[in-house]
Design brief:
Elements: H1 2-22, E1 48-53, E2 56-59, E3 72-77, E4 82-91, E5 96-105, E6 111-114, E7 123-127, E8 136-138, E9 145-153, E10 158-168, E11 176-187
Antiparallel strand pairs: 1-2, 1-11, 3-4, 4-5, 5-7, 6-9, 7-8, 9-10, 10-11
Protein name: Lipoprotein
Organism: Wandonia haliotis
Length: 188
């Protein structure tokens, strides 16, 4: 009987020790959907979109909802030679509901492009919860609005690349949204 207790307690101590030793500090995986880390530069159709907005990390992320808007919607219009990417970030606990939109005209695959401005009327950044001075910021012909498509596959339905842009609101002179280190890897 003592031998059975000894074996039982030995196994129990081993399991407890293994559990304690296996605990380790969680490190952010570069492929994770951590909203505080920019997604990696990939071209696998992972549906990732992130950038820095005025120096702060911004990653597309929406809470799950049946039939609601998704965090990234990508459309490719071959007949119109156009691409549209709409990325959303929503966090009700932090009073955040924002959208970034990129429209490319004259699209012909892997290349560098200027985002379409639609005569300086295309909204690029919208803040639906009024956390910025103005709620909508626009592309302008005279400002940075660069997109580089580094991977495009019509057979796999994947478009990936990088971007940087400055956006303004004419009603808020001097207020500019600066978007840097942007990257996307989208399926359409």
């Amino acid at each position: 009987m003592n031998r059975i207790r000894y074996i039982f307690f030995s196994v129990l101590l081993f399991l407890i020790g293994a559990g304690v030793l296996s605990c380790k500090k969680e490190v952010a995986d570069p492929d994770s959907s951590n909203p505080n880390v920019l997604p990696p530069l990939t071209h696998e159709g992972k549906n990732t979109f992130g950038c820095k907005v005025n120096g702060e990390v911004w990653v597309a992320q929406m809470p799950f909802s049946v039939g609601g808007a998704s965090e990234i919607e990508t459309e490719y219009y071959p007949d119109l030679a156009g691409v549209q990417i709409v990325a959303r970030k929503k966090d009700e606990d932090k009073n955040i509901f924002e959208r970034l939109t990129i429209v490319i005209s004259g699209f012909n695959g892997e290349n560098s492009y200027l985002v379409e401005t639609m005569n300086n009327e295309l909204g690029g950044f919208s803040d639906f919860n009024d956390n910025y001075d103005c709620w909508k910021y626009f592309y302008h012909d005279s400002l940075i609005r660069n997109v580089k498509v580094s991977y495009f596959s019509s057979s796999s339905r994947i478009i990936s690349g990088t971007f940087e842009m400055d956006l303004v609101n004419p009603s808020c002179p001097g207020d500019t949204i600066k978007i840097r280190e942007g990257r996307f890897d989208c399926s359409y």
